[in-house]
Amino acid sequence: MVRRLALLLIAAVFVSVPAVASSRASDIPEEFIGLVVKKVEVVAPIGFSKSRIARLSAIKAGYALTYGRISKTLERIYLNGRVQDVRIWAERLEDGLLVRIEVIPLVTIRELVFWGNFHFSTDEMSEILGVSRGDSFWPELLGELRKRLLKAYRDDGFFEVEVKAEAGEVTQKNEVDIIFTIREGPRYRMGKLKVLGKPTIPEEKVARKIGWKTGRNFRRKKIESKLKKLESYYRRLGYLEVRISKPRYRLDRGNKRVDAYLRIDSGKRIRVVFEGDFTPWQRRQSVPKELNLKKLRRLNRWVALDMEEKVEAFFARKGYYDVEVETFYTEDEESKVVRFAAVLGEKYRIAEVRFEGNRFATKKELLKALNPPKRFERTDFETLLSRVVRLYNERGFLQASASIKSVRVDIKRRELVVTVGIVEGPRTILDKLVFDGARKYKPEKLKQLVRVEEGAPLNPFLLDELVEKIAARYLEEGYLKVQVNWEVGGECTKSEGDCVLPVVVRVNEGKRYYYGDTYIRGLRLTRREVVER
To answer: Among 14, 127, 137, 376, who pairs with 107 as Cys (CB 3.0-4.6 Å)?
Structure first.
C-alpha cells in the first residue's frame, strides 16, 4: 500500500507557478510548502458528493500545505472507490494558496443510443440529458438521466411516457454505451384555463397573452415563459403591484387534456404624475428611469417620500440646488396616485474649477483642455473630464484618471466650486518601435507615415493614426484583409515615475488581391469599352 500511494502521489500532484502547470511531487517548490491555504475547490462529476470529498481531504483552508496532507488526501479519496485518478492543483493568490482537487472517475460514455424517440431529435436528447461522448459514467447516473428525459417529455405533454435506461458492457478502454428505450404514448392537449384571484382583465385576454388555446399541444415551458409577457402587459396598464403565480395543472386522463389554474392579483392601479418644471422628456424618460419605475413592486406614502428625495437628487446633479419638490399621495379602493410638483429655481453657475493631484500639467493647461461650461450639470461635467484624461494620455500617462472629488455650494451667490481629483499614474516612455509581420514594406518606410519619436512619452493617439495609415497603404496595394494593431511590449508595475517600454506594431498582411474579369450589367446607351476606359 505504501509503495502504491507513493506512485500515485508522483503521478497525481500538480502545482502552478504562477500559471497552472504539472510537476512531480518531489519537484514542488519550497515556496509552496508551508504556505497557508486560502481556499479549497473540488471538481467532480455528477454522482460524486463534493462536500464528502471536501470532508475526506486533509488539505483545509486556514492550514499550511504540506506533503503529508497531500498524501493523506490522495489516500482517503482513492480508498473511497470509483476513482480512476486524483489531481491536485495549486495556484498562488495574494494572501495564500488556491488548491483545486479534481476527481476523475473510472468509466466514460462511448455512445448514447435511443430507441423509440420520435418527438425529440438525437441532438435535442443529448442536450436534455446534459451528457455526451467522453463524459464520466457511474451506475447511479442512469437514474438521474432517466428523470431528466421523463421531465422533458412531460413538459411537452407526454404524461404517459415510459423511459428505460440501461448500460451496455464496459469495453477494454473503460467505455460504455447508455441505451434508452422510450415509449412516448399519447400527447396531451390544452384543456380549460381557470383564472383565480383578482385578475381585473378578462380571462380570455389572459389566455391569449400566455398562448393558452383549448386543443393546442401542451408545452409547459412555452406557457410559463409567457408569464413575463403577461406581467409586462399589466404593468403597462399601471398595475405595478401585480402578482402572478405559476400555474397549477390537473390531468384529465380520459380526454387526454391538461386543465390549468392561474392565480393573478392585479393590485391597485398606480399613476405617477409629474407637474411643474419637468420637461416633457423628463416626464416620459429621465425621471421615471431615475425612480426605476419599471421595477417598482410596491407603493405607499413612505415609498413616495423616498422617491421625492431621488427626484431632488436628480435635479441637484443638474445644478438646481434650490429645487423644491412637493409630493401628494392619494389612495382609494381602486387606485393609488402620487404627484410630484417641482419648482427648479435658478441653475447654479460654476465659479471655479480646482484640481488636485496634478503634477505634470498646470491648472491653465487643464482648464483649456476641460473647457468647463458656465452652468453645472454633473453628468455633462463628468463626460467632459475625458478631455483631461486625453491630455494626460497624449503625454504618456496611460493609466491617468479624473473624477469629481467635491462640489462646494455657495447658496447666497448661487455658485459652485468644483474640485477635480486627478490620479496621474506612471508615465510610459517609448523605448523603440518594433514592426512584426510586415513583409511588403520595410520598418523605416512605415515609420515615416507618422512621426513617432523614440525616447519621448508614448502617445497612443499617434500610434492609432500610424496604424490607420499603415492599413490604408496596404489596402491601396490590394491587401484587402490586412489587420494592423499595436500593443505595449510589457507592463508598467510602478505607481508613479517613468516606465521605458517598447511598442510592437503587428501587421497581418493576408493575401494580395488582383483585378480579374469585369462584369458590367444594365448598359443601354453607353458602350462597354467607354465604361471600362
So the answer is: 137
Lowest average pLDDT, out of 79-83, 122-126, 179-183, 231-235, goes to: 79-83
Output the CA torsion 484→485→489→492 (10° steps): 170
As a three-state string, the secondary structure of 439-502 is CCCCHHHHHCCCCCCCCCECCHHHHHHHHHHHHHHHHHCCCCCCEEEEEECCCCCCCCCEEEEE
* Mean pLDDT within 450-461: 90
Higher pLDDT, 30 or 289: 289
What are the respective helix, strand and coil percentages of the chain, to the nearest 5? 30, 30, 35
Top CATH class of 107-183 equals alpha beta
> 174 or 419, which is more confident?
419
Pick the CATH number of 269-343 from 3.10.20.310, 1.20.1290.10, 3.10.580.10, 2.60.40.10: 3.10.20.310
Q: What is the pLDDT of residues 12-55, one digit of tens each?
A: 443 333 333 333 343 456 778 888 899 999 988 776 788 888 88
Q: What is the DSSP string of 58-71?
A: S--TTSB--HHHHH
Architecture of domain 189-265: Roll (3.10)
pLDDT confidence tier of residue 115, bands split at 50, 70 and 90: very high
Would you list the domain boundaries of the chain?
A: 2-105, 107-183, 189-265, 269-343, 349-423, 430-508
Confidence of residue 526 (pLDDT cuts 50, 70, 90): confident
Which pLDDT score, from 0 to 100, does residue 94 have?
83
CATH fold for the domain made of 2-105: Ubiquitin-like (UB roll) (3.10.20)
Segment 3-8 mean pLDDT? 34
Is the pLDDT score of 507 beyond 80?
A: yes
Q: Which CATH class is domain 349-423?
A: alpha beta
- In 3-state terms, what secondary structure has residue 519? coil
Cell reading at 132: 455526451
Rounded to whole angstroms, the Cα distance separating 253 from 220 reads: 17
Using a 10 angstrom Cβ sphere, with 0-12 exposed, 13-18 middle and 19 or more buried, the burial of residue 338 is buried
The dotted CATH code for 430-508 is: 3.10.20.310
By C-alpha distance, which of 181, 179, 175, 177 is closest to 166?
179
In this predicted model, what pLDDT tens digit does every residue of 382-394 receive, in sequence order?
A: 999 999 999 999 9
Q: Rounded distance, CA 486 to CA 505, Å?
A: 4
Query: In whole angstroms, how far apart are CA 439 and each of 219, 442, 508?
Result: 60, 7, 9
Please calculate the CA angle 481-484-488 and round it to the nearest 5 degrees.
Answer: 160
Average pLDDT over residues 105-132: 87
Check residue 396 and report its DSSP letter. T
C-alpha 50/C-alpha 46 separation (Å) is 9
- Please name the amino acid found at residue 4: R
- In this structure, the number of other CB atoms found within 10 A of the CB of residue 515 comes to 6
